[in-house]
Amino acid sequence: MSIVVGQAPNLGPDVAGGHGSTHPDRPSRHRKMPQGMATEAVGSAVASFALVWLVLTLTAAGASAVGFGVFWVMGFLLTYGLLTWRLHGVLLMKERLATVFVWGSSLVALVPLVAIIVYVIVHGFAAVFSGFPHFFFADMSQFSSARSPVTQAGMVAAIVGTVEQVGLATIFSVPIAVLTATYLNESTGTFARVLGTVVDSMTGTPSIIAGLFVYLLWVQPHGTSGKSGLAAAMALTVLMLPFVTRSAQEVLLVVPGSLREAALALGAPQWRVVLRVVLPTARTGMVTAVILGIARVVGETAPLLLATSASSHTNWNPFRGIQSDLPLQIYSLVTQPGVNATKVAWGGAFVLVLVVLTLFTLARIVGSSRPGQRRLPWRRSKAVAA
Amino acid sequence: MTTLDGLRQGTDVGSFPASSGGAAAPATSGLPDSGASALVAREVSAWFGSHKVLERISLGMEQKKVTALIGPSGCGKSTFLRILNRMHELIPGAALSGSVHLDDVDIYDPAQQITATRLKIGMVFQRPNPFPSMTIAQNVLSGLRLSGTKVANPDALVQECLEKAGMWNETRNRLNHAGAALSGGQQQRLCIARALAVRPKVLLMDEPCSALDPISTGVIEETIKELREEVTIVIVTHNMQQAQRVSDSCALFLVDGEGMPGHIVEWGQTEQVFQDPHDPRTADYVHGRFG
Q1: Ordered mean pLDDT values, 10 residues apiece, chain A (386 residues)
Q2: Is B141 within the bounds of a domain?
Q3: Are B130 and A260 in contact (CB under 8 A)?
Q4: Cα-to-chain-centroid distance, residue A86
Q5: What residues of chain A, 258 to 317, have a C-beta less than 8 Å from chain B?
Q6: Which residue of chain B comes nearest to A271, CA vs CA?
Q7: Mean pLDDT by groups of 10 residues along chain B of 291 residues
């Protein structure tokens, strides 16, 4: 919170320059970044760019863009450090360099994420929107990878498959996950601790193992009719179950113990306390946990490879016959020859990223619908009590 | 039968079940001499693991009276209070001996259902804890819903309980608003209304005003005084003035030293405990000279 009313306390050397509003009634906003800091940073960046460029040109040493960038960053740190040291002393130099490192690292972490999204949008956009809305309503039966144009491709088979498989996996896993989380939270026995450890280690299960598990247990015994949307849903359930259990348990942990006590003191049996007080209090967090669980498995490919496979025709029935889905469709297209197949694959990736992004946004909206409560309930209750 | 530890001569808690008067402190006019205790603790000792926190507490809490438990922090008042409606055993490693009788029925008798006991002996906690997922009206009725009790006219009950808790006028137009949106004092009164809705015989209050401002405290004290007509109240408080203002009788808990269990030093009518204490430690404590 950077809004301080009237005569502000001195918040540190960097902020000292910013206080003293001329209007005592009006809050004065303290600048996060002190004056001069931006100038010095930009100046150092320009200076180091020029320096590196000059050195590389004079020495006639060729450098790739990446190499240039590395030299530039090193030069910037050197220039900026030297400048702040001369201007403000060692203490502030350390502070500013630390700031630069923290900001820089976060930017570096963002780069691959943004790159993936941008890349998928750039490459997938054409396939998705060139024959809009054909891409969302047709299946792949018109499309042959060698000759067909991109506009004849359609993802409806894959979309239907993904929705049904993930939906089934959600129906299978969520009740078990919520009940398990409740048990882990309410019980302190030895079995609960063992189960907690098992759930923890299950979250680390390699996804191909989940696929193998379903393959051996379901697909192989059923022979030729073994591969189906149902098998895929089962494989996804194996992955989703521990993930949702863990998140749900975290959410339940945050429900204040005082509410449980209050309910018990009213003469409630434990199951009613859980059903009527604990779970309703954790409701929004639970929904977030489920959505994040869905987002976690919707893009899984490895377990599906053994449970079903890509097909060009739409199969609405997940219980019978091969049912395609987005990850497998993308995988299948990429392995086919022809430039257009790859383009369509990018289109599929675009749809998949869109689905995941929507789910995450939904999770954020649901999760923040009652702000502060889920994350810091004890702090909130104190604030209310005060 | 002298049962209490640490008694000094002249303290009147020697005869038990505790009646209002003893040899040293004759019955005051305010208390009926019969003194049929609604809730009686006999020889209650409590442990957390191997650490003993209460040493053979015997105390009678009379019907339709307010009993205050006072004493310094960590002397076991809250633990004792929680023993009175079987909340103590929720804590892992907690153990106790002795017995607690509600109208001559031992609430620790294995034949007694815990949930039924807690329905009869309600509790209000230090921090207001209305259920955040429920509205004001739902909060009031939550005890009934949670215990699976059907009620013929829920609206009337909501009004009655909120009136008793002294907050009907403030909340009558927003019964369907979230209970957590109320102020701290209102939340605490909502918790009292919630506890009253199941019509308990005894109401335990664990420092119900310690998180509240003086005005809210005053309102709650008024509520306590009015509730005395229909329910036995046991209140833990750190506030000497509050104990004097609201209680009929008063018990002082003390510990003798670090790691020692808490015990009752003096028990008697509030007036006597504050004006004419028999034990010098009581005089020191109620006048703020130690503890």
Answers
A1: 43 44 62 73 91 85 81 91 90 90 92 91 87 83 76 87 93 95 90 93 90 93 88 94 94 91 91 91 89 90 90 88 91 87 90 88 74 38 36
A2: no
A3: no
A4: 43
A5: 258-259, 261-269, 272-273, 276-277, 280-281, 283
A6: B146
A7: 36 39 35 49 90 90 90 88 90 89 88 88 92 92 90 90 89 88 89 91 91 86 88 91 91 86 90 88 82 49
CATH number reported for the structural domain that contains residue B69 in this entry: 3.40.50.300
The residue type found at A189 is G
Which residues of B are less than 8 Å from A262 in CB distance? 123, 125, 129, 131, 191, 194
Residues of chain A with Cβ-Cβ distance to B183 below 8 Å are 384
CB pairs under 8 A between A and B: 92
What is the three-class DSSP state of A224? helix
What does the pLDDT read at residue A6? 43
Q: Is residue A258 part of a domain?
A: yes
- Judgement on whether residues A162 and A96 belong to the same structural domain of the protein: no
Total-model pTM:
0.74
| Pairwise CA distance, residues A33 & A104, whole Å | 16
Count: domains in chain B: 1
Domain check: are A249 and A371 in the same one? yes
SS3 readout for A319-344: CCCCCCCHHHHHHHHHHCCCHHHHHH
Instruction: Quote the pLDDT of residue A31.
Output: 59
Q: Which of B127, B134, B198 sits opposite A267 (nearest CB)?
A: B198
* Within a domain: B59: yes
Are residue A106 and residue A168 in the same domain, yes or no?
A: no
User: B38-87: per-residue pLDDT in tens?
Assistant: 788 988 999 998 889 998 989 988 888 899 999 888 888 899 999 998 99
For residue A225, the domain's CATH number is 1.10.3720.10
Contact check, Cβ <8 Å, B148/A272: yes
Confirm whether B258 is domain-assigned: yes
Best residue of B123, B139, B146, B205 to probe chain A, by most A CBs closer than 10 Å: B146
Whole-angstrom distance, CA of residue A304 vs CA of residue A327 = 8
- Is residue A205, in this structure, part of any structural domain at all? yes
- Residue A326 pLDDT: 92
For residue B26, the 8-state DSSP code is P
Q: Is B228 helix (H, G, I), strand (E, B) or coil?
A: coil
Q: Which of B41, B5, B2 is nearest to B264 (CA)?
A: B5
Nearest to B204 by CA among B192, B190, B189: B192
User: Best interface-test mutation with A: which of B131, B141, B151 has the largest number of A CBs within 10 A?
Assistant: B131
Is the reported ipTM for this assembly greater than 0.90? no
Candidates A264, A268, A384; nearest CB to B187: A384
The DSSP code for B92 is T
Query: What does each C-alpha distance from B64 to A343, A370, B99, B248 come to in angstroms?
Result: 82, 42, 21, 10
- Smallest Cα distance from B182 to chain A, Å: 8
Give me the domain span that covers residue B107.
Answer: 37-124+199-286
- What pLDDT sits at residue A383? 37
- Domain range spanning residue A186? 150-385
Q: How far is B22 from chain A (nearest CA, A)?
A: 34
Interchain pair A385, B184: CB under 8 A: yes
User: Which of chain A's residues have a Cβ under 8 Å away from the Cβ of B184?
Assistant: 384-386
